[in-house]
Design brief:
Length: 383
């Protein structure tokens, strides 16, 4: 059953009607891009068109490398392993998605020097907090552009510039999976060596992503096999997923900054209306640069998991922290890193709007949340 209102766009931005139409037309060109016959060549041409679109939309140069992967998880693993193979220390932040934290922490268990930079209470990773740990031997600095749970947007351009002055050979990487389609995301302006993207965060299909690499940066493949993707990723390409990624990129390009403005209007309306309806509400990262569609809300006296179920019964989707950790008993590592206690994290929901959510949708969400929260607060909680 499809939801009436999907306010969980940071988990997955399900394809809209236009993209659903594109999916069926893409089914006509599913040849193997490595085949020399016309079916294969057509699939190859479609993939190269998607690659050119991606380069254009994210401001990567013609000489920069774009490797299509099975998602942001693989892209992050590829750049982390590639950097680690060069030797030297690894620096990342405690805010990162588990697909950055898990491989980096594995290297730490194997004896490598690893630093997890702590964010401020507002969810930002400051330039100083990173630079403090950088040495000429640093192999990797990986800081996400935008956080998936609280939406804080880190000063990547400044971090990259500062790291270069101390460690010119370090790979500076940013996970931009949540930034694409929500804020300008321009590879050449960010000044990083590598950037990770994910298709299903912008209305493409899950299981597809990309790693953008600065011209001249050489990395070992993570997946070895055939010579696909410039010998950087073996395996027959996900032709359908890559085509649809290209079309989703074209759509966000067409919408331009109007898309960001719409999201921001929706999010601001939500926060104003919710504050008017409910007491004891606190928004995280509100005072800093953050994604225009994301609202991380602490609701005193509420269990976020119970609220998610109550909303789901009304066919409204929200989440508690990251989708990947939903269903797990652990509290959000992001909020904990920001200095909040466990109780606070368990009373926090994440609302992440689609670009097509209108004011009526916001009113519906606020009405349902207010009703459920008021009901839950009136029932004494078991100790
Ligand atoms: N990085 C961030 C910041 C994310 O939010 C996610 C997914 O939630 C990922 C990486 C993983 O993306 P994928 O599902 O494409 O592997």
């Amino acid at each position: 059953m499809r939801p009436i209102l999907d306010c969980d766009a940071n988990a997955t931005y399900s394809p809209d009607e236009q993209i659903r139409g594109v999916i069926s037309s893409c089914l006509n060109s599913l040849g193997n891009p490595s085949s020399t016959h016309r079916g294969g060549q057509r699939a190859r041409a479609d993939i190269e068109e998607a690659r050119a679109t991606l380069r254009r939309v994210v401001g990567a140069g013609g000489a920069d490398t774009v490797v299509f992967t099975s998602g942001a998880t693989e892209a992050n693993n590829m750049v982390i392993r590639g950097a680690a193979q060069r030797g030297g220390g690894l620096i990342t932040s405690a805010l990162e998605h588990p697909c950055v934290l898990a491989p980096v922490l594995q290297y730490q268990r194997e004896g490598r020097s690893v630093v997890l930079v702590q964010p401020e209470r507002d969810g930002l990773v400051s330039v100083e907090s990173v630079v403090r740990h950088v040495t000429p031997e640093t192999a990797l600095v990986s800081i996400m552009l935008a956080n998936n749970e609280v939406g804080s947007v880190n000063p990547i351009q400044e971090i990259a510039a500062a790291v270069r002055t101390i460690a010119p050979k370090a790979i500076v990487h940013t996970d931009a999976a949540q930034a694409l389609g929500k804020i300008p995301c321009v590879f050449s302006l960010l000044g990083v060596d590598a950037m990770t993207l994910s298709a299903h965060k912008i209305g493409g299909l899950s299981g597809v992503g990309a790693l953008v690499l600065r011209h001249g940066l050489e990395l070992e493949p993570l997946i070895r096999g055939g010579a696909q993707e410039g010998k950087l990723r073996g395996g027959t390409e996900n032709v359908l997923g890559i085509n649809v990624f290209g079309k989703a990129l074209e759509l966000i390009e067409k919408e331009g900054s109007e898309r960001f403005a719409r999201m921001s209007h929706t999010r601001d309306l939500f926060e104003t209306r919710l504050t008017a309806e409910l007491s004891d509400v606190e928004f995280h990262a509100r005072a800093v640069s953050r994604l225009p569609n994301t609202s991380s809300v602490y609701l005193a006296g509420i269990r976020a998991d119970d609220l998610i179920v109550a909303m789901d019964l009304e066919r409204i989707l929200i989440s508690s922290g990251a989708a990947c950790s939903s269903g797990k008993p652990e509290p959000s590592h992001v909020l904990m890193a920001m200095g909040f206690d466990e109780e606070h994290t368990r009373s926090t929901i994440r609302v992440s709007f689609r670009a097509d959510c209108d004011d009526a949708g916001v009113e519906r969400l606020v009405a349902s949340l207010s009703k459920a929260v008021t009901r839950m607060r009136s029932v004494p909680r078991a100790a």
